Structures are given as structure tokens and as C-alpha cells.
Amino acid sequence: MITRIKATNYRCFKSLDFVPHEGMNIIVGGNEAGKSTLLEVISLLVGGRVRGRWAADDLNPYWFNHDVVRQYFAAHKAGQNPALPEIDLEIYFSDDAPGVATLLGAHNSLRLKCPGIRMRVRPDSDHHAELEAYLAEDELPELLPTDLYQVSWHAFSGDPITRQPRGLGVALVNSNTSSTHSGVDYKLRQLLRDFVKPQESAKIALEHRTSKAKISNGILRTVNERIAKDEGSFGVSLQMDQSANSNWDTVVAPHVEETPFAMLGQGRQVATKIALAMSRSAEHTQLVLLEEPENHLSHTELQSVIEKIQTLSNGRQCFVTTHSSFVLNRLGFKSLHLMHESRIIPFDASAISADTMAYFKKQSGYDTLRLVLANRVVVVEGPSDEMIFNLAFEKVKGRSPRAAGVDVITLGTRGKRALELGKALGRKMAVLRDNDDQEPDHWRAPVSDYLEDGVREMFIGATSLGRTLEPQMIEAGNDTALRILFGLDAKDDLLKYMLSQKTEWAWRVADSEPGLVWPTYIQEAIEFIDAS
Q1: Which residues, given as ranges, of the chain have pLDDT below 70?
Q2: Residue 316 DSSP label
Q3: What pLDDT shows up at residue 179?
Q4: Are 24 and 320 in contact (CB under 8 A)?
Q5: Which residue in 154, 291, 308, 415 has a CA-CA distance of 20 to 30 Å to 495?
């Protein structure tokens, strides 16, 4: 299995050093955090291809980290003669991983003797003079001359690699779909071809070439004779394509239940690719890379796919990127890796109890991913609490919570679960809850292990001011303003009205934005969560 991945100066990674888990790895992060690029690095190192093309054929200036390139040209313009940027990618394997025996050596940046693969992109020494001449020019565009670079792909043994090492199986499944036969991606073709034995492949190739030759020597001969009689033909004739671009595996179209793969719906295409990757024996795919498996899938289809991933993931190492709390909850927090701004953020999974782990798996709707990705979190009990807190924050601070980098999440009375997760993530968190006729310490005691002054705190209204948000709002000094807003007179029961219209009253307050006084515990929570 993969024990370590290092990437230097590649795309968004200026310097990545990632140690994955042996089995399941779930990578989450915001957009442009580097999740897809991480899968790309693994696929590139093991298979030598990126986006279906050989690395040397796809190499372009945009492979290089933007900041590194900008810094290079700034130094070059300042006359500092800096070294040209290089890309260095490495993948380390355990000694017992299948197919890695020939990769053993110490030709890596850590000088460790272990199996592994290294890919480097460096200036080509054969083009030294051309590079010198190029760099001597004035007004250089801030693009590296990658046509004067070379890509080297070597095992840690020092031996060059020309194709994916035999026995080292990897399947990359992304959410890309195709609408034409030619759009069926390379990885899917490779996946299907793995089921064809070498002898069968040779026989299919022979019959395919024979059939093309038969057409060229048959009906096309008659056509060519007719073309030859045309004085403007200039010797042109028609022949069946015999190049590598027309090999049998590029023209055989995968079908599902007699329907061409490209004609399937988007969800069915994604589900089929994932099922194929996970259904193959671990001998063929020790490594499975799944990019956002939730894309294009209905909730029912996603449930089926996740069950298949769970059932068939044993014996292989999986890397799953996701934006779905359902995927994260079902596959488990023990497998989580947080990625932020192209870096892996430490996460202490051992700090989450087995009971809470089981809870997350059962509660697939629990919005854990928002907790994971937020920098500062406010957890409230219900929709009315969320609307009132958002409005109060905006009135007090002059900006919305989201604009201040605060995510307000409704999670019912599950504050303990949120605090436990917040501690493991190192998140700043405020939990607001009703007192329900119990003193605040009654609710704080069970979660005391997760509370920390200035980091994670629980805010609860005083029992003397009412058991829920509604009486707390009235007792804060808003009786007259709320009666006017709701069209109630002195004889009407304001509290009874608000309790019977729990979401409606809060929506009307949020929609009209009247001048109100906010309960003390809400004001304290606002100051706490907004403090640096």
C-alpha cells in the first residue's frame, strides 16, 4: 500500500507531504483545495498518464505551481540568476505491496530504502544553450519554456519506467461523463481491457486488423479504382486506418444492458464506472481513486454505490474526495483527511468516541461536512434560533456571520456530538441551546471534556427568563415591538402566539428587521465567536 506521497511545485502543491491510511482515505476540503490534484498525482505516478495522455505529451507551463513561477521570474528580472523551477513527485509503498518488488531502492528525496516511484520535470541538459538564449531575451512572458524540459519517470531502484508497473493496479474514477463514443475516457477503457486475457487480446487484434484489411482490399479497391480515373485525384486513395489510434480497444464501445455507455444517463455512467472499479478483484486494483462519487447520483443511487464501496473496499487502499456529508458519515471519520489551501490539516480521529462514530454513520443527514470545513462554527437547535442569531449578529457586527467567516448550523439538541467533533478538528465553536427549565450547569456538565475557555463554549439563557428562545426574546425588552410586528394587542397572549408559530415568528422578525434587544446569552455568543 501507499505509505507516503510527496509533491513539490506541481500545480497547487508547492510542497505536499501526505501520509495516508492503509485502507480508506476520505479527503475533504473547499473548492480548489487540491483534492482532485492529489488523485491526479497518484494516478500520474503509478500510470504515467494525466487526463489520458502520457506525461511527456501533456507537459505544459501550467503544471508548475503559479507562486513558484511568479517568484522565479521576479528574481530573474531582478538579475539574481535563480535556478529554473522543477517538479518532483514521489510515491512510497510498503514492502509487502503487490507489484512493487522491482521498485525497491533509495533513489528518493528522503534517501529511504523502500519501494517507490519518482517523476521529475527538469530542464533538459541537451537544450542548455537554447535555454540560455531564451532566458537572455528581454520581456519574457511569465511562462516556463516546457518544450525545453524533460520528464523522467523512475523507480526508487533507479531504473527507468516506461509503463505502469506490472501487478500494481490502480483505478481512477471521476465524475466526468461522455455523450459520444469517442468521449469514453481512457481509464474506463483500461478498466474494461483488464478483463481481457492476453491471448484474447492478441486474437481480437488479429481479427480486427484482418477485417480492416478485407475492407481495404475489397469494396474500397473498387472505390479507389474509380478515384484513380479522376484526373484531379493526385494519387489519393482510401484505406482503413491501421495506426495505433484505431486499435481494437479504442473502437470497442462499452455497453450496459445493450445500451452504449455514452448513451446512458450521467448518474448511470458514474455508478457503472464506480461499480466496475470496486467489483474487480483486489489483485487487479489495489488502489482505487474515487473523485466525488456523489456527483450526478440520486440519493438512492448514492446509497447503493456507498454500500458497494464499503463492501468491496477490504484488501485495497481507497482515496475518496467528496463534498457530501452523507459520503463522509457513511465511510467514517476515522478515514478523514482535511485539505485546506493545498495542505493536509492534522485531524485527531482518535479524539472521537466509537459511540459518536457509530452515530455519524447512522445519522447520514447530520451536516458534518459543514462542521469539518468551517473555521468558526455556531451550533443552534432549530430554524428559529438560526434566523434570530443571524439577524442579531448582523445588527451587532454590521455584517452577516458568513461574511465574518462564521457558519451557523442547525443541529437540534446534538450539541455534544458537535463539540466532540469540534475538539477533534480544533475548531472554534459556540453551542446555543434552550435551558428547558434546567440551570446552565446541568447542560454544561456532560460536555465539560469538550469545552475550553475561548475555544469551545456553550451559551444558555437564564432559567428566570424562560425555558426557550421565545420567552427569552420577550423578557429581553421586546414585548411592545413584537406585538406591533405581529399585530397583537394588550389582551393577546404574545408568548402563546410565538410558541404556536415557532418558525413563522422568527421569519417575520428576520424579514422585517425591527429594532430589538437581543437576549444576553445570544449577545455573549456573538462576541465570543467574533473574537479573534
Answers
A1: 175-194, 231-233, 244-245, 260-267, 270, 273-284, 361-366
A2: S
A3: 46
A4: yes
A5: 415
- pLDDT confidence of residue 397: 95
The 3-state DSSP class for residue 44 equals helix
- What are the start-end ranges of the E strands in 393-508? 406-410, 428-433, 456-460
Length of the chain measured in residues: 532
Residue 105 grid coordinates? 531502492
Q: Which residues partner with 276 through β-bridges?
A: none
Q: Which of 361, 372, 371, 306 is nearest to 339 (CA)?
A: 372
**How many helical (H) and strand (E) elements, i.e. helices and strands, does the chain have?**
21, 20
Q: Is 155 helix (H, G, I), strand (E, B) or coil?
A: strand
Q: Strand 317-321 to strand 255-256: parallel, antiparallel, or no bridges (unpaired)? A: unpaired
In a domain, 95, yes or no: yes
Establish if 335 belongs to a structural domain.
Answer: no
Strand, coil or helix: 319: strand
Helix, strand, coil percentages (3-state) for the chain, rounded to 5, are: 45, 20, 35
SS (H, E, C) 366-395: CCHHHHHHCCEEEEECCHHHHHHHHHHHHH
- Of 98, 131, 166, the residue at which a domain comes to its end is 166
Alpha-carbon torsion, ordered 371, 376, 380, 384, to 10 deg: -110
Cell of 23: 485502507
Sheet holding 428-433, edge to edge: 406-410, 376-380, 428-433, 456-460
pLDDT for 181 equals 46
Domain that holds residue 94: 2-20+52-166
Taking only Cα atoms into account, the Rg of the chain, rounded to an integer number of angstroms, comes to 31
Which of 252, 286, 319 corresponds to the end of one domain?
Answer: 252
Contact assessment for residue 171 and residue 288, using Cβ atoms and an 8 Å cutoff = yes
395 and 449, same domain (yes or no): yes
Question: Which of helix, strand or coil describes residue 256?
Answer: strand
**How does pLDDT run across 224-253, given as a tens digit for each residue?**
888 888 766 677 888 887 776 677 777 777
